[in-house]
Amino acid sequence: MLKIKELCKTFSPGTVNEVRALRGVTLEIQEGSFTAVIGTNGSGKSTLLNAVAGSFEADSGSMELFGRIITNWPEHKRALLIGRVFQNPFAGTAAGMTIAENIGMAMRRGQRWSLRTAITKRVREEISDKVKTLKMGLEDRLDNPIGTLSGGQRQALTLLMATWLKPQLLLLDEHTAALDPKTAAKVAELTREIITREKLTAMMVTHSMQQAVDLPDRIIMMHKGNIVEDYKDEMKARARVSDLIKAFERVQKLDLFDSSVAELLEQQYV
Amino acid sequence: MQLSHQKRGRYLLVTTSGRLDAAWADHFSKSMQEHIRQGEHHLLLDAAGMEFLSSAGIRSIVQLIKSVKSVNGSFQLVKANDFVKQTLTMTGFGGWLSDDLPEDIQELKSDQGIEPGDGFETFKLDESVGLMISIPAKWKPWQSFREGDAVRIRFQKNSFALGIGSPVQATDADTSMMGEFLAVAGNTVHQPPREDEDPDFLLAEKEYLPEMHCMQALHCNGEMSHVLRFAPSGKKLYFGLGEIAEKVLTVTNSELAAFVILAEIDGLVGSYIIKSPGQIHQGQKMEFPGAREWLSFCGERMYARQQALVFGIAARTPDDLKPALMSASGKYEGLFLHSHATVFPYQPMEAGKINLKDATWKFFNGSPPLALYHLVEDLRPLTGLGESAFIRGACWCAPIINGKEDLPWE
Ligand SMILES: Nc1ncnc2c1ncn2[C@@H]1O[C@H](COP(=O)(O)OP(=O)(O)OP(=O)(O)O)[C@@H](O)[C@H]1O
Ligand SMILES: [Mg+2]
Fold first, then answer.
1. Residue B41: which of B359, B351, B356, B347 has the closest Cα?
2. Partner of B137 for a Cys bridge, out of A46, B93, B151, B172, CB 3.0 to 4.6 A?
3. Distance between CA atoms of B74 and B60, rounded to whole angstroms?
4. Is the pLDDT score of A111 beyond 90?
5. B53-77 per-position pLDDT tens digit
């Protein structure tokens, strides 16, 4: 289980570019829960995921993953426990290496190995079997450089690699956003399959309200570095896309309600 | 499929060519509905170039005829070829066919020439009638509120009102549910004091008369004396609320008048209560940011192309008087207003001198209201949203005819 307490992050503090990207985020994610993170652009969704992954040091607050305090762990150490997939299909893989080599690398995450470590026949079969589950015919192309694949194919493989060793936590940041609608739907379905099959604990940033309603069992909404809505259990079960859109409108409306509006209404509320 | 149109007297002659089938039916429906929205209620479809008509096409024509009938308009399909004629006749819709253009159509003459004036057309209903106003509940924001101050009002079929209240429940006055309401011809729409709840409504049907527990109410009884119709013409694209209110005072030749607007929306600007003021027990100041807990402000111009039903009171008063529960317009000097608007999904309206009860009933009886606002004039520099405005519609109005002594001045 992931426990985040009072997490704060300010970029470029004390300068004109200061951004308070996380303003005391507190969140507990239960083991086996699949949580969607939604919110307007710049609300801090990616920053939250990056903070958990250790891409930077948080200014204050703490993070605990399955009983271990990871707040001060370096990124590479957290990477042993946390799998990640980004929006950019070209981010998570090495383009020049073959599919098999890329996967081989993912399989040995955290172990000492070199490029020359041979992929045994048995391992190759294991790779082929798992790649088959993607139903993209990629099992026949294991020796092709991964750079020759389409974005959707690469994203499916990245997902497979990120979950190969059953991470304690899977972080997905708009991982279907750069794909065409049909491929996006396929990768989304694949995401659900893998998360359910492997019983993973996962967080997924998405701008697709439909995805947020369909895939996960919990939805949190961020706004200005805070969590402003949290749909879980029955609330999540009955949440519809239109409810989420209304929630968006609500926070945006609240933003527009400044002191000049209060003054206006004070005069005109009679 | 190609569509083109031409104004011919009171008719709009729409020429089609190609196929009216499943692939084009939607496009056809949309363009025809748009004509009706723009006030074209007499449609002629020149089908000389129509090659094919499928069931989907027939369905879209049936839909069109329904819309045209709902506004008392007319529809005819002229010059259809034998195939189209046969299809329509065999499916039982031959009645719409005609070989020739109607006789009263003018030769190629268009009356698109815009009438000079301010875009208003005024119809007198009965100049001897008017409305009596009363203020049975006088709560003012954000005074403290005692339960006993709520007044139960039963709206008659000639009642028009606005205020803050809650529908009467079995368990007497529940002060946690006070929100804005309006009543038009006895029918009420009220907004529960919750951000994400839709308004609810009570209709004056048969013996039933809606009742509200009110903490604030401006209540008028009587008949309307005039109906104004307005529509865009030339460069004039919309009508502001203040402008309509000014026109109402002029037409009714009075200092105090009430009006009902039923019109297509250009944009509404307003707010509504999201926390019942019935729960205020000590004087509350509308300060920032606390105000955000009590009120929801629209933030942008809302509900364009939907239909608004507004009830409002307009006053022009001598300098030393201020009408009760009304606020001064910043745009129109000497004009005071209080108005509430509810929003319904758009439906076209009949042209001409129409009856208030029938015209509004069509909306009360249709899809439920989408919103209810206390209208606000937002003249903040740069960020201001302006005032609410309407594109085309009707405004019924009447002078308030209370004796001078019992006018609601403060
Ligand atoms: N490395 C950085 N340096 C400076 N500012 C940053 C950095 N990363 C993020 N920010 C700022 O922090 C805020 C939150 O950014 P973040 O990427 O978390 O938003 P997001 O919710 O993921 O938005 P989007 O939906 O656009 O991806 C933004 O204002 C962003 O400009
Ligand atoms: Mg992001």
1. B351
2. B151
3. 16
4. no
5. 999 999 999 999 999 999 999 999 9
Which residue did the predictor score with more confidence, B145 or A191? A191
The per-residue pLDDT for range B174-213, each reduced to its tens digit, is 788 999 999 999 999 999 999 888 999 999 999 999 999 9
Tell me the pLDDT tens digit for each residue of A120-145: 888 899 999 999 999 899 999 999 99
Report the relative pairing of strands A68-69 and A60-65 from DSSP bridges. antiparallel
Domain ranges of chain A: 2-239
Q: A45 in ligand 1 pocket by Cβ < 6 Å?
A: yes
Residue B141 sits at the chain A interface (C-beta within 8 Å): yes
Query: Are A261 and B297 a contacting pair at CB < 8 A?
Result: yes
Q: Is A205 left (phi over 0), alpha (psi -120 to 50) or beta?
A: beta
Q: Which helix (H) or strand (E) holds B164?
A: strand B159-167
- A204-235 residue pLDDT tens: 999 999 999 999 999 999 999 999 999 999 99
Rounded to whole angstroms, the Cα distance separating B306 from B388 reads 13
Mutate to test the interface with B, among A231, A257, A258 (most CBs of B within 10 A): A257
Check whether B288 has a pLDDT greater than 60.
Answer: yes
The count of other CB atoms within 10 Å of the CB of residue B348 is 22
Question: What domains lie within chain B, and their CATH numbers?
Answer: 2-98 (3.30.750.24), 120-406 (3.30.1330.80)
Identify the architecture of domain A2-239 in CATH.
3-Layer(aba) Sandwich (3.40)
What number is the average pLDDT over the span B11-30?
96
Sorted by sequence, the CB contacts under 8 Å of residue B162 that are 6+ apart come out as B180, B181, B182, B183, B217, B218, B311, B312, B313, B338, B339, B340
User: pLDDT tens digit string along A54-86?
Assistant: 999 999 999 999 999 999 999 999 999 999 999
What is the per-residue pLDDT across A31-45, written as a single tens digit (0 to 9) for each? 999 999 999 999 999
The two three-digit tokens of residue A18, written as one number: 């200061």
Nearest residue by C-alpha to atom 5 in ligand 1: A11
CA-based nearest residue in chain A for residue B381:
A260
Mutational test site, ligand 1, from A8, A9, A10, A19, max ligand atoms within 8 Å of CB = A19
Band of residue B111 on the pLDDT scale cut at 50, 70, 90: low
Chain A residue closest in CA terms to B385: A261
Using a CB cutoff of 5 Å, list residues around ligand 2, an ion. A 46
From CA B340, how far away is CA B375, in angstroms rounded?
6
A68's tokens: 């271990």
Among candidate residues B19, B245, B10, B298, the one with its CA nearest the CA of residue B120:
B245
Q: What is the DSSP letter of B229?
A: E
Helix (H/G/I), strand (E/B), else coil: B29: helix
CA dihedral B296, B297, B299, B304 (to 10 degrees): 100
Q: What is the pLDDT of residue B113?
A: 45
